[in-house]
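Page 42, continued from yesterday. The earlier attempt failed because a stray header line got pasted into the input along with the sequence. Redoing it now with the clean sequence only.
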Amino acid sequence: MQTSQRVLFECSEIKDPHLVRKKIKEHIADKAKLPILIFLERTCINNTSVMMFEKGSFEVGGTIHPVAIKYDPCFGDVFWNSTKYSMMTYIFNMMTSWAIVCNLWYLPPMVKEEEEDAVHFANRVKAVIAAQGGMSVLPWDGELKRKKIKESFKEEQQNKYCQIV
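This time it went through. Structure tokens are written below.
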């Protein structure tokens, strides 16, 4: 692990966003080090959308090299629906599929614009990735699939729907 120039965190450090940003800034400031690979959504969903990115990676400066990844389900679905399948069933399905086919696009590097904040920069990068993969952009976090939806969020969506109707 020491030879691959990873940015390592202790479990307790993950809860301190300032410390995480500091370590990432130190890494990107050293031009001799390789770029960092960060999965900004923190989770995979059903291959149709790109969810909200964590803004912390966009606050540290530096150049973002976006990569769009979209799995082709021709030989099997790579996404684990934990409400439908146990982990053992999922692993069995993956191990017995013919192949896991993945489309991967390396997109042009992107830099934060002068008047742009981290959230807008993250959304701009997300939109480019979604467009390349033919996916829709979602404004919510991937953790939503693991948590109970707040009543206020449901009511807000219902009110928006009522206005449309």
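Notes: The chain has a mean pLDDT of 82.
Reminder to self: strip header lines before submitting.
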